[in-house]
Amino acid sequence: MQRQATRVVLDTVGCMIAGSAAPPARPLIRNFERWAGPARSDVLGTAIRTSPPDAAFVNAYTADVLDFEETLLSHPGAVVVAAGLAVGQDVGATGAEVLTAIMTGYEVGTRLGRAMLPSPGARREHAVEFWWKPVAAAVTAGLLLRLDRTQWIDAFGYATAASPVPRRGGFEFRPLSYLKANYGGQAQVGVQAAYFARDGFRTYRGMLDGPRHFSQLLGSDRWRPDVLLDGLGARWECLDIGFKRYPVCLYLHALLESVEVALAGRPVPLERVREIRATVPSLIADELAERCPRNIIDAQFSAPFAVAALLSGSSPNTQWFSPQQLSDPDVLRLAATVDLQVDSEYTRLQRTDGRVRSGVRITLDDGSILAAHTDRVRGSADRPLTDTELVSKFVSLVSPSLGRSRAEMAAADIREIADRGSIDETIQAVRPS
Fold first, then answer.
1. Cα 289 to the chain's mean position, in Å?
2. How far apart are CA 328 and CA 432, in angstroms?
3. What is the pLDDT of residues 41-88, one digit of tens each?
4. Which of 5, 313, 337, 415 is the most exposed place for a label (fewest CB within 10 A)?
5. Number of folded domains in the chain?
6. Which residues of the chain fall short of a pLDDT of 50?
7. CA dihedral 348, 353, 354, 356 (to 10 degrees)
8. Residue 379 falls within a domain, yes or no?
9. Euclidean distance between CA atoms 160 and 156, whole angstroms
10. In terms of Cα–Cα distance, which of 74, 80, 65 is closest to 19?
């Protein structure tokens, strides 16, 4: 468990630091810099220290802005790691205490998320898989604040009642919103909930079991409280975490891996590509078909552009969707050739088990064909990334800010987080000079 928690922290901190330099994060950071005062919690990737709720807000947002962080029923790590680091700094917690709080928030949050998942039909309208994270953040923060039983109930009441609810989808409205799923707001609310409850703020106490419970108010047509305790103590949710290899929506990973398998390590000059036929479930063809993304968020949810970016030879990192790449005429031409064809069986399977399968067929100018399909992507729980791969990803994310040498030392420091007497020692390793 501790090893997996350390992997989550390593991956998420890398995403936070790299995300702090992304264009969508800059307006937020400028404002928080103006508001910052004497406080103990770092905004990672910057020299700002601010209040725990505000630090949790920015760090959760930057963890998600590149769409490169871990996955399990969306991206819990963005919220619980942000909450754990912010509150851990404020109370002077040890590294081991922060790891425990993060994994507990992860466990409680994902169980709640599964318990309130709507039916497939309702899920198209209500993004309930995103909305439970204030509770996860409240659990992480509450453990570090050592809440008592009454305070816990009040913290849950606040976290559920004040949950900031983003709208479902919105992929038809391009360019896409910088807000994304508002993980920053969810982390902030969860941390506030724990602090407010500790100091006596009283809330409605039926949000998790009353007649108007959290799940119902958020639009789910199902509430299965038995899921909350199923296998508790014997089966750990965090063991199913996946880590991303590409900075795009997880739904696109099978398609991109198919491209890599088809190429088999052989670079193909863009001018030789005549046609790209992608076989995908209807979800991708209907919602992720934008061919000319206008910002980094747009690009994260564009199947044609992601395929073109990969074929262009650009490494899947923070520069993959740079302004230069977004306006590159060769990449745009290639994106225009991507034909998304719906496969009815892929669609049925995706709706049944949630896993996305995809295939690709690339035709070159001499008539030769490169083809492959992917059922289970690298980085998923059953095909996990190695520790070495995660460290390499972290270093590539953090090097533009800290330099390669410091990035490598920071990775080593984070991997020893459980032995640190103060979480501040670990955060010191990634502070700007």
1. 21
2. 32
3. 999 999 999 999 999 999 999 999 999 999 999 999 999 999 999 999
4. 313
5. 2
6. none
7. -60
8. no
9. 6
10. 65
Residue 410 to residue 391: CA distance in whole angstroms: 10
How far is residue 327's CA from residue 292's CA, in Å, rounded to a whole number? 9
Looking at residue 284, its amino acid is: I
Do residue 25 and residue 65 come from a single domain? yes
Is it true that the peptide bond before 175 is cis, omega within 30 degrees of 0?
yes
Clarify whether residues 215 and 177 are in a common domain. Answer: yes
Instruction: Name the CA radius of gyration of the chain, rounded.
Output: 21
Domain membership of residue 13 as a residue range: 2-244+384-428
What is the pairing mode between strands 338-342 and 358-364?
A: unpaired
- 270 and 402 belong to one structural domain: no
Helix or strand (DSSP H, E) at 122: helix 120-123
CA–CA gap between residue 293 and residue 288 (Å, rounded): 10
Q: Do the beta carbons of residue 413 and residue 426 sit within 8 Å? A: yes
Q: Please tell me whether residues 177 and 312 are part of one structural domain.
A: no
> Strands (DSSP E) along 229-312, which ranges?
273-280
pTM: 0.93
Asked if 180 contacts 64 with a C-beta cutoff of 8 angstroms, the reply is yes
Contact 107, 239 (CB under 8 A): no
For residues 257 and 237, membership in a common domain is answered with no
CATH of the domain at 350: 3.30.1330.120
- Do 51 and 22 share a domain, yes or no? yes
Please tell me the predicted confidence (pLDDT) of residue 102.
97
Task: Tell whether 240 and 95 lie within a shared domain.
Answer: yes
Query: Which phi and psi (to 5°) does residue 136 adopt?
Result: -60, -45
**Are 314 and 393 part of one and the same domain?**
no
The enclosing domain of 15 has a CATH number of 1.10.4100.10
- For 43, the token pair is 């905004």
